[in-house]
Specification:
D-amino Acid Aminotransferase, Chain A, domain 1; binds N-(5'-phosphopyridoxyl)-D-alanine
Amino acid sequence: MRSLRAMGFLCPRAGTLCSVTESRMVPPPRVSDMLAWIDGSVLPLRDARIPVNDHGFLYGDSVYETVRTFQGELFRLSDHFRRLRTTARGLRIPIEWSDSQLAGWVEELRGHLPVGEHYIRLLVTRGPGEFSYAPDPSQKPTLMILGGPFQATAREVLEKGLVAVTVGIPRSVPNPRNPGLKTGNLLNSRLAYFEAIERGADEALLLTRSGHLAEGSSSNLFLILPGEVLATPSIESEILEGVTRTVLLKLAREVGLEVREEELSAECLVQAEEAFLSSTSRSVAPLRSIDGRELGCPGPVTRRLMDGFIRLAGGL
Ligand code: PDD
């Protein structure tokens, strides 16, 4: 895995390279290994172009989904389509393609990728337009489907655990966009991630503006509180309703865990016996410390959920 230093990440405050040797976040495939589907053509991602007046570029006016395969099958594709449509509706970007058209184009792209596990990113922008916010009925959204080989992290590596720190950047900005929408406006998350890696951690934990727990920069947060209680911030807590989160909550209830989905104060971090993050690319990623406090890693409950997830999805 390339280090962030090698990738040339800059620390925002100091304007110098971050002193991070290695990030244990799962990287997406290298751009050089990826293909893009645009307008019915499949081409190397490096050669893919969008016009500079695309509002996705001018205004961050875009929505996206990340999907992966387990044993060659796309995981919860229809849930990702549903969230893509909800986000697009929230931004008033009309999506005229049906789920079966989208799925067909995803398969077309996958047909050009090497056999194995795949990472797929669907991206819809408002499309090329004037330098104006004024609604333009003739503006056509741009659809891009990007894909490449997906390298899952080995369970032994996952089980070493990640280090997380709470950061000062809130999940939402004072004039908020809805954090439940998966839009292309990712600056808070990105700055939060920078802050975390500057402090030697692998992932940032963002709080809500009122100081409650929200989520990771690109993941949802779960805590195991005394008494084997699985606690996670509710969807009202300025989080993205992760597809993996939904799967894990159902699984936890099925295996008889007590589940608390509610506003969680930052003090819960101190009570937690175990903690993990969830996301499409990391499935269940145990945390070995939060703000320097060591946690059971992976503790018994996390291990049970990892096993359950493997049974359900076919892998981690
Ligand atoms: N990130 N919260 C945020 C802010 C995210 O960006 C993500 C996903 C999640 C987890 O959602 P899901 O389980 O549906 O992947 C939570 C993806 C992986 C990404 O940004 O590519």
